[in-house]
Predict the 3D structure of the following.
Amino acid sequence: MAVNAAPRTRFFLAMSLLFLAIALVGFSTTFFIPLARGTFEAPAVIHVHGALLFGWLAFFIVQSSLVQRRRVALHRRTGRFGAALAVAIVVSGVAVGLHATRRDLAAGAGDFALGQFVNILIEMALFAVLVGAAIACRRDGEAHKRLLLLATISALAPAWLRLRHLFPDVPNPFVTFSLLADGLLLVAIARDWLATRRVHPVYIWAGGAMVAVHIVELLAITSPPWLRLSRWLLGEPGA
C-alpha cells in the first residue's frame, strides 16, 4: 500500500493511537481481564482473529508513523503485509461470526443473533472493499489514507459494542454504540474542514456509503429477509 509524499500531519497517527485505545478499553472486560485472570476460554479461531485485528491496529500505527517520518519507501514495502493481513482478518472474521452465531443460537439468543450473522458478513465485505479501494488508490496518498481510516473505523465496531459492559445503563446499546463508532467519521470530516476548508470526496462518498450500510444493518437485523438469508447461509430449515 503505497502513498505519495504529502504535507506532514499528525492527525492520522493520532487517530491510529485512538483506535488502539478504543480497542483496548472495549475488549478489556470480555478479553483482556478474563485472559489475565485465566478465565477466558474460546476456540482458537477467536484468538487468531483477535490477534489479527490488533495486528492491523499496530500496522496502522506503524504505517502512519512511517509517513509522518517521511519513510515513504519503507511504507510502500510494508504495505504488502497489510494487504495479506486484511485478507486474513476477513477470512477469520467470517469463521468467528459463524461460531458466535451458532453458539448464541444454541444459548437461545433468537432472531437478533440470527440476523447478526448477515451483519457480520456485510461488515467483513465492507472492510475488504475499503481496503481494496485503498490499495487501488495507493498512488493517491490523500484518498489512500482516508480509505484505510474508514476501513479501520468500520473494523472497530465490535470494540465499541463491548463498551456496553462498562456502561450498562446506556439505552439501546447496539444502536447507541454503533452511532458513536461512526461518529469518528465526523472527527475526520471536521479535521479536513479545519485544515483545508473542504471535505475530501472519500469521506463524502465512501464514508457516506459506510454509514448507510450500518444504518441498514441496524434497521434490518431482525427483518424477515435478513433471517431467511441467515438461515440459508447456515443451512438451517426455514430458509
Remarks:
- The first helix runs from residue 11 to 26.
